[in-house]
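Marked as duplicate of an earlier ticket. Keeping the data here for the record.
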Amino acid sequence: MIRYLAKFVTKEAYADDLLNGKLFMHCGKYYHDLEKKCGPGQGDIREGAILPNTAIYKNIYYPIYCMYKIRDEDISDGLVVIDRRVIRDFDCQGGFMVLIPFDYFTEVLKKANSNGYKLAGTEVWYGYTTINDLDKVINSNNALSLGIKHPHFQYQKEYRLIIYKDIYQDGFPNSLKEERPYVCYLKETIKGVAKKIPINSLKVTENGYVLNLIDVFGNKG
């Protein structure tokens, strides 16, 4: 069972945006361009691919919001070890983590303003789409292509929100610098429950960054 969701950001202002109920979302195409610019990690040229090692995509202009999931089995005596690669991928060694209890967040999302479009959360599955799955991926209305990623990225333990709206328009900018994110607004602040944690406050071991839930929430998770 998922217990917490974490959002890793490079700047405190971005963490405050989430705490104030603003979710800045990019479409799948954004992450194609990000890999071209910065390499794989946060960027992924296969985002939305219907089969591995192809450049055939579906739903890549749907806005998505990427988070890190912490499940029961990830917690031991109130401690969670976050793979170093996660912090590296998001380039937030000097940034922040916003930590949110999962059940609370899913309730808040029910009241989110997604401009009338469907908003859904899904755990990313790390594997390969097969020919047998292809019909389902192509014809499903559940944006399955955005919920499958290469097994290489399974350390990212991603949970993502998807808004079922194609934000592509004629002249949609290809430049990362120019692309405008899609903003989804929560109806309420989450400051009272979610926690903002500086990444440099976490203990670093050879296994990763250690999050102490007792220090954050006063319990073992």
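See parent ticket for discussion. Helices lie at 12-19, 28-38, 84-89, 102-109, 131-139, 213-217.
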